[in-house]
Design goal:
Elements (H helix, E strand, L loop, with lengths): L3 E5 L11 E8 L2 H8 L5 E4 L5 E2 L4 E8 L4 E6 L3 E7 L4 H11 L23 E2 L2 E2 L4 E8 L4 E6 L20 E11 L11 H8 L5 H15 L7 E5 L5 E3 H10 L6 E3 L3 E3 L2 H7 L11 E3 L6 E4 L5 H19 L8 E2 L1
Parallel strand pairs: 2-5, 3-5, 4-19
Antiparallel strand pairs: 1-2, 6-7, 7-12, 8-9, 10-11, 10-12, 13-18, 14-16, 15-16, 17-18
The protein binds flavin-adenine dinucleotide.
Flavin-adenine dinucleotide (FAD) binds next to strand 3, strand 8, strand 12 and strand 13.
C-alpha cells in the first residue's frame, strides 16, 4: 500500500475541482483496506467522484477504490446472481449484463461512477432504482475492522437514500455488491421518453435496445463531465404533503407533480429552479446552471467548490422564498 501526501483530486471528481487530500491510498485488495483502516486519520471513500463537491482540502485520508472483479455465484432458469467488486465502473457492468441478455440494470445505463457507490444513494433513473436488483451488499466496517453482509431489504433504501449515506457514511467501505438479475425479460419502458425513443430506433424492446434508448436520451440531455464539469442532478426532487401542495397548485396551475407514498407529492426540482430564472445562468466565478437542465450545476471555467456551493445556496434560497420548499442537495459536500 502506497501512502501519498497532498494528492490533488482534480482529475478524480467530475466537477474538476482542484482540492488536495492530505493523505491518499489506492485500495487494490482487502489487505490494503485492512491496513488503511488502521491508519490514524479520519477517512473518506472515493469512487469515481461523480457525486461529490470538494469545497476545501480534505484533512484526513482518502481511500481510492480500485477493487475489481465479478463472478456469478448462482443461477437458475429465471435469475442470475452476480457479485461485483465495488471499484468496477458502473456503466461497464450495465453493458456486460445487457450483453448477456440479463435484465435489471438496463434503465440505469450511462450513470457515471463505480458499483460500490450505487447503493450509497440508491442510484435511479428512468423508473428504475438499483435497490430493485440488489440481493446483498458486502462491506467492511472501518472502525470495527469487520466484514459485514447486509441484505438489500435491510439497507434502508429510499429515494436517493440508504443507511450507508446516513449513520454509516465514511464508516462502511462497500467491497462488493451482489445483484439478482432476470433471465426472463421484465422491461420498464413506460418512463420518460424510452418508448418514444424505441419507436424512433424502430427496433423491438429488449434489454439491449432499452439500454441503447436510455443512452441516446441521456447523451442528448445531460452534459458530459469530460467536457463540462458537473455531478448530475445537484438537488433531490422535493416531496411535500398534499396539504402543502394544494395551495401551490392553485397559485401555479402548471406545476408538474407526481403522487408519492403516504399522501405526499413529488415535484421536479428542475422546474422550481427554472421558474426562479436560473436555467443557463453563468456566475462570474465560472459556476453556472446547465442550459438544458436546470437541476445540473456546472463548472464552466475554473470555479472553486465554494463558488459552486454558494450558487447552490443562492438557488436554494430563491426556491424557498418563492415556493416555500426547501431543496435538499443530492451531491455530497466534502
Ligand atoms: C452526468 C451525470 C449524470 C448522473 N446521473 C445520475 C442518475 O441518473 N441517477 C443517479 O442516481 N445518480 C446520477 N449521477 C450521480 C452519480 O453518478 C452517482 O451517485 C454515482 O453512484 C456516484 O458514483 P461514484 O463512484 O462517482 O461516487 P463518488 O462520487 O466517488 O462518491 C459518492 C458517495 O459515495 C461514497 N462511496 C463511494 N464509493 C463507496 C464505497 N465503495 N463504499 C462506501 N462509500 C462509497 C463516497 O464516500 C461519497 O459519499 C450522475 C452524475 C453525473 C456526473
Amino acid at each position: 500500500m502506497h501512502l501519498q501526501q497532498n494528492k490533488s483530486l482534480r482529475t478524480q471528481n467530475t466537477f474538476g475541482i482542484d482540492c488536495t487530500a492530505a493523505y491518499f491510498v489506492e485500495i487494490h485488495n482487502l489487505a490494503d483496506l485492512e491496513e488503511a483502516a488502521h491508519l490514524p486519520y479520519p477517512k473518506r471513500i472515493l469512487g469515481g467522484g461523480s457525486n461529490i463537491l470538494l469545497t476545501q482540502p480534505v484533512q484526513g485520508l482518502v481511500l481510492g477504490n480500485c477493487l475489481l472483479g465479478k463472478h456469478i455465484i448462482a443461477q437458475d432458469d429465471d435469475h442470475v446472481y452476480i457479485t461485483v467488486a465495488s471499484g468496477e465502473t458502473w456503466h461497464n457492468l450495465v453493458m456486460y449484463t445487457v450483453e448477456q441478455g440479463w435484465g435489471g440494470l438496463e434503465n440505469l445505463a450511462l450513470i457515471p461512477g463505480t458499483v460500490g457507490a450505487a447503493p450509497i444513494q440508491n442510484i435511479g433513473a428512468y423508473g428504475a432504482e438499483v435497490a430493485d436488483v440488489i440481493a446483498t451488499v458486502q462491506w467492511f466496517h472501518l472502525d470495527e475492522h469487520a466484514y459485514i453482509t447486509t441484505s438489500g431489504a435491510d439497507c434502508a433504501f429510499g429515494y436517493r437514500d440508504s443507511m450507508f449515506k446516513r449513520s454509516l457514511l465514511n464508516k462502511a467501505f462497500i467491497t462488493d455488491v451482489t445483484f439478482k438479475l432476470n433471465k426472463k425479460t421484465q422491461l420498464k419502458t413506460g418512463y420518460g421518453a424510452i418508448s418514444e425513443e424505441l419507436k424512433k430506433m424502430n427496433i423491438p424492446a429488449t434489454v439491449a435496445s432499452v439500454a441503447q434508448a436510455v443512452i441516446n436520451i441521456r447523451s442528448s440531455k445531460l452534459p458530459n463531465p469530460a467536457i463540462i464539469g458537473n455531478a448530475g442532478s445537484f438537488f433531490k426532487n422535493p416531496t411535500i404533503t398534499r396539504a402543502a401542495f394544494l395551495p401551490l397548485q392553485s397559485q401555479y396551475p402548471n406545476m408538474p407533480f407526481y403522487p408519492a407514498n403516504d399522501n405526499m407529492v413529488k415535484i421536479p426540482a428542475g422546474w422550481l429552479i427554472e421558474q426562479c430564472g436560473w436555467k443557463g445562468y453563468n456566475a462570474p466565478t465560472g459556476a453556472g446552471v446547465h442550459n438544458l437542465q436546470a437541476l445540473v450545476l456546472v463548472n464552466r471555467q475554473n470555479a472553486t467548490g465554494r463558488d459552486i456551493w454558494q450558487l447552490s445556496q443562492d438557488i436554494l434560497q430563491s426556491v424557498a422564498s418563492r415556493f416555500h420548499i426547501v431543496l435538499e442537495r443530492e451531491v455530497q459536500i466534502w
